[in-house]
């Protein structure tokens, strides 16, 4: 099966694409010339000048090609990953530049380039000479720096699935197709029947899940927010707007002229745009640090409040337990059974109030006055019955006893 047939098959089978204007890109590929291409016609994996290896990334990005088709507007992920590895292993290469002019392509196979860039040990940058849309931009964000030409196109961040329905055309020529299935998901999404709402939702969920991974991928490498990337809604931007949004780092004619501009700006009499960028980055760093410090301080305050509340709750629990024990003891000592209202009132009192209530609740036992030493009840009775001499004798005896 030739490359054009494979791509057409994949599109019809709803392969996930990260591509801007897929139909336009397919129309621009000269598949007839490509079919006559042989391995002997292949271009070099990269060119090297002054220690810089430049790898062209062109046209539609597909999982793999049997040969190098970049001149015809097709780049295979597997081939690109191999070129990056070759440049990384080349002792004549000091750094690598990906020269990108691509509208993106398949989702399948992207991981091959991800791994190659992640394993690369040399500085690697991107120069967007034409466009870096969708999957092509996904590759660019993994490099150390993105420089774009003045009229380059950046963006189209998201994924898409193509579905073609031919039910109306089939009816016009008198053809009706009936699919007899063993299950409702068997051989669905064909072009010979309309999509149901459930089938459409199934496709949409796959698109949304992969798009979210794309948003988070860009956000992590560009120090942006994934929600911010999602809010772009797949729009495309020129280089100036892309730089304002933080999607690229610099606008220049090439990566080399960008480097030269940095060197010439070392003259203090010249205006150094790079210094402005550094100052703006420093401001953002300080602002982010301030927000981070405030968040940390707020968290410490929140933690301290939480600890205080926990201690307060523990103390209240202990006090409640102690008060309940005192109420139970008071009930046992007095032989009384307190109502729920009384118990609630006891629990609401402070310690001083409860002490008063506890005292009032206990019965008062009358106390018989104590007799002086040496005078018992019989003596007192006898004194009254026998006359004053017996009483006085007892009193004098008691006094004498006390004087000893």
| CATH architecture group name of the largest domain | Alpha-Beta Complex
Q: Write down the Rg.
A: 45 Å
Oligomer: single chain
Mean pLDDT: 82
Poorly predicted regions are 260-273
Q: Give the domain tally.
A: 3
CATH topology of the largest domain: 2-enoyl-CoA Hydratase, Chain A, domain 1
Q: Supply the number of helical segments.
A: 16
General form:
elongated
Give the N-terminus to C-terminus distance in angstroms: 134 Å
CATH C-level category of the largest domain: Alpha Beta
Please provide the ordered H/E string of secondary-structure elements: HEHHEEEHEHEHEEHHHEHEHHHHHH
Number of strands: 10
Reported for the largest beta sheet, the result is: 10 strands, mixed
Domain Peptidase S49: 119-264
GO molecular function: peptidase activity
Region (Disordered): 365-387
Keywords: Coiled coil
Question: Helices, strands, pairings?
Answer:
Layout: H1 3-12, E1 17-19, H2 22-28, H3 31-35, E2 47-49, E3 52-62, E4 74-76, H4 77-89, E5 95-106, H5 110-119, E6 124-133, H6 135-140, E7 145-148, E8 153-155, H7 167-172, H8 197-222, H9 226-231, E9 236-238, H10 239-244, E10 250-251, H11 255-264, H12 273-334, H13 340-348, H14 351-361, H15 377-386, H16 388-403
Parallel strand pairs: 3-4, 3-5, 5-6, 6-7, 6-8, 7-10
Antiparallel strand pairs: 1-5, 2-3, 8-9
Helix pairs in contact: 4-5, 15-16
